[in-house]
């Protein structure tokens, strides 16, 4: 079983791992752990320590936290493998034998959210433009210019996106990032799932600056070209924290689109186990997601394609399939509707595992757009809905950086203005409803007048 091992080495080692200008190795952090085959190819990652308000519970998702990367506070993640028949023994022995071992956590397989449906596209991306009021957005200067938009997926083929859009895209090659062992240049990956996601973000935000992060290309024994390991997402989010910290505070904006998730408990520890990911706010990835959001990033995750009417064949959770970070209180969890506004049958329903009220909101999917999978194939799944949403968020950030409108305030704005599809204001099919760009723009205009 592949695992993440959280260590607290000496402060000077923590400082080296946290320093973006230093490349620390697994050997620098750990000289060997009993019964663990350490993965020397994985670059250690610093995990910030959550610091709650006085008297609070550090593991409560409703707690106001700050996150410290100070050498005396932070810890370090390395990756390794434990024999399946020794998992229970090693999980007990490691903390007992080494006082620097904080915990051992699941490193589940993460997979892209492809649709199980074979239906033809419903409308095309120009319909999505109309529904998102893109002309009105751009008339107000909200087109994504200067906004960093990270696509964590299978990599982007920039030439294909340019041909389909009929205009050039902006790609930041310097701030793009590959997991250890993944080769390929930013914007030059084969046309696949990540290319679809990149195209869909640019419907609303054509001038956003894309950051290419191919986390789903990291290979494991028996893996496919469309899955990776959560440990690589941990490293990717650590990189994005450096990207965000390098921006001026007054104009800080980073949108992170994640069209992937964990489909099966077979890769995870059981619920209630301290190493569990699906239901555990203390898992290092869930902590690092929270720290990035608090620093000013807008983090979006697809709700997944485990809807009861048309469930993806990989869905192995018997209930509550919106798991882990996809259900985090600090992210926007995106469900899917077609261009007629009807929920698509594969869009996962709540409640979520970390936060009950998930998904947050629905965006458009199952339309003819990127043609990344062929001329007759739609951009589908919550995999398409998530980057469509990320594009709208990036457009808003053009003139509303996080210093002016925090990620939490923007999430609240999108939920409050959504076109409600229930009688109670929230339901587990649509969340708070379908995105309403006109309502968002009206609210921003009122807020702008009040700020004068």
Automatic annotation (TrEMBL):
The active site is at 153 (charge relay system), 193 (charge relay system), 383 (charge relay system). One of its GO terms (biological process) is proteolysis. CDD domains: Peptidases_S8_S53. It comes from the Bacteria. Residues 144-433 form the Peptidase S8/S53 domain. The keyword Hydrolase applies. The keyword Cell inner membrane does not apply. Keywords: Hydrolase, Protease, Serine protease. One of its GO terms (molecular function) is serine-type endopeptidase activity. SUPFAM superfamilies: Subtilisin-like. PROSITE patterns: SUBTILASE, SUBTILASE_SER. InterPro entries: Peptidase_S8/S53_dom (IPR000209), Peptidase_S8/S53_dom_sf (IPR036852), Peptidase_S8_Ser-AS (IPR023828), Peptidase_S8_subtilisin-like (IPR050131), Peptidase_S8_subtilisin-rel (IPR015500). Belongs to the peptidase S8 family. This is Subtilisin family serine protease.
């Amino acid at each position: 079983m592949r695992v993440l091992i959280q260590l607290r080495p000496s402060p000077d080692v923590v400082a080296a791992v946290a320093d973006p200008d230093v490349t620390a190795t697994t050997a620098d952090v750990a000289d060997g752990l009993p019964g663990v085959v350490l993965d020397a190819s994985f670059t250690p990652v610093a995990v910030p320590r959550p610091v709650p308000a006085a008297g609070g519970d550090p593991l409560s998702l409703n707690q106001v936290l700050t996150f410290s990367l100070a050498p005396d506070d932070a810890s370090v993640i390395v990756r390794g493998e434990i024999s399946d028949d020794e998992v229970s023994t090693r999980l007990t022995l490691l903390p007992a034998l080494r006082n620097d071992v904080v915990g051992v956590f699941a490193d589940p397989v993460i997979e892209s959210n492809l649709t199980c449906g074979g239906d033809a596209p419903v409308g095309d991306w120009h319909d999505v433009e109309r529904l998102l009021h893109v002309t009105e957005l751009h008339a107000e200067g909200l087109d994504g210019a200067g906004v960093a938009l990270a696509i964590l997926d299978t990599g982007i083929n920039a030439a294909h996106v340019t041909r389909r859009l009929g205009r050039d895209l902006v790609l930041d090659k310097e701030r793009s990032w590959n997991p250890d062992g993944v080769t390929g240049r930013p914007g030059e990956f084969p046309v696949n799932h990540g290319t679809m996601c990149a195209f869909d973000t640019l419907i609303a935000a054509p001038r956003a600056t894309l950051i290419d992060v191919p986390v789903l290309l990291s290979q494991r024994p028996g893996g496919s070209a469309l899955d990776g390991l959560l440990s690589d997402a941990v490293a990717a989010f650590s990189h994005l924290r450096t990207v965000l910290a390098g921006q001026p505070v007054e104009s800080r904006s980073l949108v992170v689109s994640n069209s992937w998730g964990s489909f099966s408990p077979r890769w995870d520890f059981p619920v209630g186990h301290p190493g569990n990911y699906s239901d555990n706010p203390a898992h290092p990835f869930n902590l690092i997601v929270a720290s990035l959001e608090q620093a000013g990033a807008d983090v979006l995750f697809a709700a997944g394609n485990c809807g009861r009417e048309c469930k993806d064949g990989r869905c192995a959770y018997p209930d509550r399939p919106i798991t882990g970070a996809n259900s985090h209180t600090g992210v926007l969890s995106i469900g899917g509707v077609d261009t007629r506004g009807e929920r698509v049958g594969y869009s996962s329903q709540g409640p979520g595992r970390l936060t009950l009220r998930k998904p947050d909101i629905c965006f458009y999917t199952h339309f003819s757009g990127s043609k990344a999978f062929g001329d007759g194939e739609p951009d589908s799944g919550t995999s398409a809905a998530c980057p469509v949403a990320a594009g709208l968020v990036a457009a808003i950030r053009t003139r509303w950086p996080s210093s002016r409108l925090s990620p939490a305030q923007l999430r609240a704005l999108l939920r409050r203005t959504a076109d409600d599809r229930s009688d109670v204001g929230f339901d587990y099919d649509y969340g708070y409803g379908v995105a309403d760009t006109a309502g968002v723009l009206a609210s921003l205009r009122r807020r702008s007048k009040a700020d004068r």
